[in-house]
Design a protein that fits this description.
Two copies of one chain form a homodimer. The first copy, chain A, is mainly α. Chain A contains nine helices and no strands. In chain A, helix 5 (about 85-100) packs across helix 6 and helix 8 packs antiparallel against helix 9. Chain A is elongated and about 60 Å long. Chain A starts with a helix and ends with a helix. The model of chain A has no long low-confidence stretch (mean pLDDT about 90). The interface between A and B is large, with 43 and 43 residues. Chain A binds a DNA duplex through helix 1 and helix 3.
DNA sequence: GGCTATTCCTGAACATGGTTCAGGAAAGGA
DNA sequence: TCCTTTCCTGAACCATGTTCAGGAATAGCC
């Protein structure tokens, strides 16, 4: 039964997500407009609400893509031969590069939930858990004496630290600095943490 | 010459900032409405735009207060007798406590600039510089061999790290954890950095 | 105090943008 | 082919920030 109707619906969904992604990437989440989206995707304004619950759902779909791409970029950044601290640095640098290259998309990842109050979708938690999983391996090598609970906290703490450094570092308006300096900050902190 | 007119204007500004602060504190920046503000402050809708350039300017005024209060909280948290690492931990804990106690106001500090693109007001940069100044003292004690430029980066890096830990830690929707755990994460990272 | 210019206040109106909906078009099934 | 269902359309609705014409209060001046 899902021959024409469903296919068209799926295509429309795809076009909408594509259009939203490109517009967010170009102009930021705050510039996303339902009417622009409809025009870009070649559909009527109301059709958006047939394909998606609301604009938010589209942004969520875009965030899903972004999160997958981010995870991929971090996964691909190391080959397993690095020493633990070095691997953390390499992964963090990949995180920074991704955030710097796709700032608006990356920022949308965090802007949406700040604003909204609905439940976080499963894929969101899972994607974050995946990232944490990548980090926890080198962390447990660096701190072999730590118990699991403490390791989890440390993993989270290091991710948050790197995220904070990247986040404020890319924030041109308050405390922005060039990416090389952000990279140096990440190195300073992670190396310092590894050298005890 | 600024007898009645100016006084009334000043009072209105004060009432508006007060009302905005209380509403942001209660419901978050996203729930701020011009019409609510006018009602709370007992003035007409249009009067807002006589006292302030726009809603943003009011939020900026609120942010100014918040930033001052935050700086005060951090300043007051240590007495100078602490060892450098301990002082960093104490200051960071004060930062966490403030953010936890006034989450919406604290978050407004960072939400606004993300969205907007105008120039950051001077007091903003100065307030941040003040915070950095508080941090740089213990940091330079911990790393006496570092050059000034490297110290500045490290100061910024540590502030960003703590900010990241607090920020993601208080984010109930992604990776929120109870404040005691946030405090433990801060301690883990800062102690580790001091112990080399 | 009275008079005029200025300044301020008011709330209706405007602009923008997300969302809905009645009516028509297309698809599915017989 | 015909009926049902489903979808699409864009005008309308609603919320919200901002502006503005007209009236009220104030300020300066004699």
């Amino acid at each position: 039964m899902p021959s024409k109707s469903q296919a068209r619906r799926a295509q429309l969904r795809e076009r909408l997500v594509e259009a939203a992604e490109s517009r967010i990437a170009r102009e930021g989440l705050g510039e996303l407009r339902a009417r622009d989206l409809a025009r870009d995707a070649g559909c009527a304004l109301g059709a958006i609400y047939n394909a998606f619950e609301d604009l938010n759902a589209i942004v969520m779909a875009v965030n899903g893509r972004t999160f997958r791409a981010l995870g991929q970029a971090v996964s691909d950044s190391f080959d397993g031969s690095e020493a633990p601290v070095q691997r953390l640095i390499v992964m963090s640098t990949a995180y920074l590069r991704f955030a710097d290259a796709h700032t608006n998309l990356w920022r949308a990842l965090f802007e949406l939930k700040m604003t909204q109050d609905g439940p976080v979708p499963d894929w969101y938690r899972e994607a974050l858990a995946g990232l944490f999983g990548l980090i926890s391996e080198p962390v447990s090598q660096i701190f072999p004496e730590m118990k699991r609970e403490e390791l989890e906290l440390m993993t989270r703490a290091l991710f948050s630290s790197v995220h904070g450094i990247v986040s404020l570092g890319l924030e041109n308006r308050i405390s922005g600095v060039p990416p090389e300096q952000i990279e140096r900050m990440i190195g300073q902190v992670l190396r310092q943490i590894g050298n005890n």
